[in-house]
Amino acid sequence: MTSKSPVLLKASVLSIPSARARSGGTTAAAWGVRLLDRYFYFSMSLLIAAVIIYGFHFTVDKNLFHPAPPRPLLLYFHAAVFSFWVVFFIFQSSLVRTGNVRGHRLMGWFGLALGISIILLGVSTALTMARFDIVQLHSPNARWRMIVPLFDMVCFTPTFFLAIYWRGKPQLHRRLIFIATCGLTAAAWGRFPEPILPHYMLYAGVDLLILLGVARDLIVDRRIHTVYQFVLPLFIIGQSIVVYTRWHELHYWLRVADFLLR
Fold it and tell me: Which of 1, 33, 182, 229 has the fewest CB neighbours in a 10 Å radius?
C-alpha cells in the first residue's frame, strides 16, 4: 500500500477549509436569494408607503389640514382613496406573503373597485385643482402642472387593468400591480426637497422603485421579466415627454389643457 507524499497530504488538508468556505458562501447566497424572493414585494410595499409619507409631509398641512383658501372637497376624497390604495397594497402583499392566496383573490375584487376609483378621482381631481389654482390662487403655472397627475393616470390605468386581466398569472399580475403602484408615487417624489431630488427629476424616483423590481428579477430569476422589458421603456419615453413639456412650457399643452378645462 502506497502512502501519500507529504506535499499531497498537506494540499488535501488545506483544501478542506477552502471547500467548506465555498460551501458556506454558496449557502449564504442561496439563503439571501430565497429571502429576496419571499419578501421583496412586501418590503417594497412598505418602502412605497415610506416614500409617500415622507414626500407628502412637506405639503399636507398647508394643502389639506390648514389650507388658505379652503380646498375643494374632492381633493380630500382623492387623498383618502389614494392613501387607502397604499394600505391595500401592503395588505394584499402580506396576504400573499403568509400564503393566504384565497383571501388575496377575494380581496382583489375590492381592489378592482378601488383601482377604478383611483382613476376616476385622479383625473377629476387634476382638472378640479387646475381650475381652482387658476380661479382662486391665480396661478400662472396651473395648466402646466396638471400634465403630471394626468400622465400618472395614463401610466396607472393600463398597467392596473392588465394586472386584473392577467390575475390568473401571478408572474404577470404582481409585476403589473407593482409597477402601477410605483407610478402613483410621482406626486410624492415631486414634493421631495430640491437638494435631495430636483422637482424636474421626480420620475427618476418612480423609475428607481421599478428598477428595484428589475434587480430582484436579475438576482432571483437570472433574467429580466418581459413585463419590465415592455413597460419600463414606455414609461421612460412618456416621462421624458411630460418633463420636457412641463418645464419647457411647450405651447401645444396649453391647447390641450384649455380643451380639458373648458
Answer: 1
- Whole-angstrom CA distances from 135 to 30, 138, 248, 258 are 59, 6, 23, 14
The domain of 93 spans 38-261
Count structural domains, the chain. 1
- Per-residue pLDDT band for 179 (boundaries 50, 70, 90) equals very high
pLDDT digits (tens, 9 = 90+) for 34-75: 888 888 999 999 999 999 999 999 999 999 999 989 999 999
- Asked if residues 79 and 52 have their Cβ atoms less than 8 Å apart, the reply is no
Instruction: Note the pTM of the prediction, 2 decimals.
Output: 0.88
Peptide bond before residue 69 is cis, with ω within 30 degrees of 0 = yes
- 33 CB neighbour count, 10 Å cutoff: 15
Does residue 9 form part of some domain?
A: no
In a domain, 21, yes or no: no
Residue 147 falls inside a structural domain? yes
